[in-house]
Amino acid sequence: MKITTKRILFFLFMGTLSGVLMQCTKEAVKEISPENKVLTKEQNNQKQKAIEDSLKATQIQYTSLIFPKNKKDSLMGEFTKKYSEEEQYIILALNRLDQKNRWRADTLVIPDKFDPTLMLYSPFPRKMEMLDKVNKFVIFSYPIQAYAVYQNGELLKWGPTSMGKKAAQTKRGLMFVNWKKELAISTVDSEWKLPYNVNIHNTLGIGWHQYDLPGFPASHSCLRLLMNDAKWMYNFADTWILNDGGATLKANGTPVIVFGDYKWGGKKPWKMLSDNPAANLITVEDLNEVIKPHLSKILDEQEKREHVIQSSEQASDKNIEAA
Questions:
Q1: What is the set of domains in the chain, with CATH numbers?
Q2: Do 254 and 137 touch, CB atoms closer than 8 A?
Q3: pLDDT for the residue 41
């Protein structure tokens, strides 16, 4: 058979085309392989929801104990007899109450398992990859009246709080620990003693410390904690670094974010736990949205602090050598 120039060119073209198609197919396969697949925001949300749904199956279950006004004293007596002091502490903490204010309870949500660390009931994610490079981080949620502490992205602790009341709300946004004092006196009322006070806004006088937890936001803009939590947080927090004269800020302390809005007059989310064990849940995506705008500032301040500490240590070593 006579092979013309046109036929040769045709075969060459088809061979080239087949090679291109095969290469395109390989590239397409490569693009959709798991290691190269880029998840959309919707897919990420679906993935997170799937994780949350799987967790719900093993979550703690809650029941509600209702205190009618005419039977409150007798039911509270039964409550104290039925549960140990440790169990009462856990129940009250989940309801944003302390022992002193338990009389305020009209309803208590009660878990079916008891964990004195409260970690079994955490509404915060156990792991925050966005915070992997952040040494220490504290966050307060207005909507659920709770705080969380992270170290390099790992949840160390969480607990209840009572933040600023409607007329004196706690400032939102990024702040840093300034100074701390084991026993401070309130600038609002000199009779108010504030154990383990950690200041996060010097000019506004905002800080976290131990004080009454009545089950709702009640403070004059500060962040109230249970005594054990206040002491733990006091020891955890790093304060600012000032120059020798104390007049110039050289480095900030532990970063703190306060976020969200409380539903004033609405049903408290922790009281919904008996109907929905995920009622308090804050997802990774929720926190990512809160933290992301501040992350570069947090890391910059952390780097600055590390540099100041390193310089101070080097200067100290030189002084020792010279002595």
A1: 58-314 (2.40.440.10)
A2: yes
A3: 62
Predicted local distance difference test score (pLDDT) of residue 70: 86
Q: Which two tokens stand for residue 159?
A: 């607990």
Average pLDDT over residues 2-6: 46
Over the chain, what HEC string results? Answer: CCCCHHHHHHHHHHHHHHHHHHHHHHHHHHHHCCCCCCCCHHHHHHHHHHHHHHHHCCCCCEEEEECCHHHHHHHHHHHHHHCCHHHHHHHHHHCCECHHHHHHCCEEEEECCCCCCCHHHCCCCCECHHHCCCCCEEEEECCCCEEEEEECCEEEEEEECECECHHHCCCCEEEECCCEEEEEECCCCCCCEEEEEEEEECCCCEEEEECCCECCCCECCCEEECHHHHHHHHHHCCCCEECCCCCCEEECCCEEEEECCCCCCCCCHHHHCCCCCCCCCCCHHHHHHHHHHHHHHHHHHHHHHHHHHHHHHHHHHHHHHHC
- Confidence at 317, pLDDT banded by 50, 70, 90: low
Encoded tokens for 154: 């790992």
Residue with tokens 């800020």, as numbered in its chain: 249
Contact 138, 108 (CB under 8 A): no
Residues above pLDDT 70, as percent of the chain: 80
Decide which of 244 and 138 is more confident. Answer: 138
- Res 244 pLDDT > 60: yes
Structure tokens at 232: 């733990």
Angle at 319 between CA 313 and CA 323, to 5 degrees: 145
Q: State the pTM of this model.
A: 0.81
Q: For position 126, what pLDDT does the model report? A: 97
